[in-house]
Design goal:
mainly alpha, globular, 14 helices, 3 domains, Annexin V, domain 1, two-stranded antiparallel ribbon
């Protein structure tokens, strides 16, 4: 367990490693990283384990910590995504059109947007995102960015990235953690620990493609001592 501040998050990755990681999140992006691509079974375990550990409802805690547009995060943890790897192409096309309509009207807080992102399974959403690009020429993230630079736009882009290409999201988290003076150890630890037994090799490949450098070398160069050895062990070095 590692501690930062704010509110608790629990990561359950039983489908990949059978292990549970418990920690504390410091911001909305951390919560999205945890919740954005979980299936219904994992969400249920997260809620149950949180209640067992802290004797309070995770939904109630999120409601008390978050406000406004960030209520979508409550939807992510309280929703019941379909677990099956089922894709309905017709629904994907229709929902791509709904997302495009919301973007054109600059109504990113529309209930349709929240409902699509918080209830559809990962495979269905990836199909919707693919149809969106095919039909409207731009990736969904780009059109969301064109709507503005507010909290909601940032929130939605992180959610879309986590669902569509989690390895790209975590590669960016690592880079942002070590960029500039000092190291954001909480974010760096979260990114590497939570992906270590899932898709860390994919994160490394994506990192190299995005930044033309090695995740291992950059992480090693920005850390030291036992902390560096810990991360290098997780990286298999």
């Amino acid at each position: 367990m590692w501690i930062s501040s704010s509110f608790i998050y629990i990561i359950v990755d039983d489908d990949a490693s059978g292990k549970m990681y418990v920690g504390f999140g410091t911001d909305e992006e951390a919560v999205i990283s945890v919740l954005g691509h979980r299936n219904a079974n994992q969400m249920k375990k997260i809620r149950e384990t949180y209640h067992q550990l802290y004797n309070e409802s995770l939904i109630d805690r999120l409601h008390s910590e978050l406000s406004g547009d960030f209520r979508l995060l409550v939807g992510l943890v309280s929703s019941y995504r379909y677990d099956k790897e089922v894709v309905d192409p017709e629904a994907a096309m229709l929902e791509a059109a709904r997302l495009n309509e919301a973007i054109n009207k600059k109504q990113l807080d529309h209930d349709d947007v929240f409902w699509i992102l918080s209830t559809r399974n990962v495979f269905q959403l990836r199909a919707t995102f693919a149809y969106y690009k095919q039909l409207y020429g731009n990736p969904l993230e780009q059109d969301i960015k064109n709507c503005g630079k507010g909290d909601l736009e940032s929130l939605l882009n992180v959610i879309v990235c986590c669902i569509d290409c989690p390895e790209k999201h975590f590669a960016k988290v690592v880079k942002d953690s070590i960029w500039g003076l000092g190291t954001d150890e909480d974010s760096l630890t979260r990114a590497i620990v939570t992906r270590a037994e899932i898709d860390l090799s994919k994160v490394e490949v994506e990192y190299a493609a995005m930044y033309k450098s090695s995740l291992e070398d950059d992480t090693s160069g920005d850390t030291s001592g036992d902390y560096r050895r810990f991360l290098m062990t997780l990286l298999g070095k």
